[in-house]
Amino acid sequence: MCSQQAVHVAMTLDFPYLRGTMAAIFSILQHSSCPENIRFHFISSPSSTHLHETITSSFPYLRSQIYSFDTNPVSGLISTSIRSALDSPLNYARNYLANILPPCVQKVVYLDSDLVLVDDIASLAATPLGTGTVLAAPEYCNANFTTYFTPTFWSNPMLSLTFSGRNACYFNTGVMVIDLERWREGDYTTKIVEWMELQKRMRIYELGSLPPFLLVFAGNIAAVDHKWNQHGLGGDNFRGRCRNLHPGPVSLLHWSGKGKPWVRLDANKPCPLDALWAPYDLLRTPFALES
């Protein structure tokens, strides 16, 4: 698990998203030019570590490790957001990867469980981070960045100046390449936690675990081609409406948002793009097969 030549992938593991995780793993392996070179690091709550057996039995040659994430410390830092699923403590495990993963792991690709790859993950992992940059992710500078924070945040000069001198753009934290050595050296977990602690005292954002990442990293990340995160396929966070692909090539499809493909397929109410996820669904129910 300490190989520096390997592609290290970190994902969370819990029951509601198990089907998504399995599909993501299958897609990664299927499109990898060297699947035996991939190391999977799964983070789960103490009550869900048994789910690792489902993965190892389905992928017997998978090189993987399960890590138990103590959710109690972060539970007290979570503020309610616009969607209850975003308030799961495990959703914040990405903040602590540098502490959870072995110190020998220097670089990791973090992936959400509601996505599939149709390209070689080694290409994503090879994203150059440049000098001193901690993480890389696709940026979306056309998004209205101000909407991710409350009027309380923008009306406070001490807070709004956080982005002074930074070309801060939205990026989706479901797909990131992270230099864990630089993260540890800069103690970025503490920086994120400090913003979460402030949020508990005065509400400065609305959307789960994303805004603290934006506060710390927006404007200071390495760019990744948009093809590596065709996000938003789950629709908005309220209604989960069907959406189309963004223009351009596709290497990764991401069902971020309220609607998850396995839920819509089981309800026999799929969106058109859910058909692109279905071939990777290893845990489909008999009912879904018959329908």
From TrEMBL:
<dbReference type="GO" id="GO:0005794">
    <property type="term" value="C:Golgi apparatus"/>
</dbReference>
<keyword id="KW-0808">Transferase</keyword>
<keyword id="KW-0472">Membrane</keyword>
<comment type="pathway">
    <text>Glycan metabolism; pectin biosynthesis.</text>
</comment>
<keyword id="KW-0328">Glycosyltransferase</keyword>
<protein>
    <recommendedName>
        <fullName>Hexosyltransferase</fullName>
        <ecNumber>2.4.1.-</ecNumber>
    </recommendedName>
</protein>
<keyword id="KW-0325">Glycoprotein</keyword>
<dbReference type="InterPro" id="IPR050748">
    <property type="entry name" value="Glycosyltrans_8_dom-fam"/>
</dbReference>
<dbReference type="GO" id="GO:0016757">
    <property type="term" value="F:glycosyltransferase activity"/>
</dbReference>
<keyword id="KW-0812">Transmembrane</keyword>
<keyword id="KW-1133">Transmembrane helix</keyword>
<comment type="similarity">
    <text>Belongs to the glycosyltransferase 8 family.</text>
</comment>
<dbReference type="Pfam" id="PF01501">
    <property type="entry name" value="Glyco_transf_8"/>
</dbReference>
<dbReference type="InterPro" id="IPR002495">
    <property type="entry name" value="Glyco_trans_8"/>
</dbReference>
<keyword id="KW-0735">Signal-anchor</keyword>
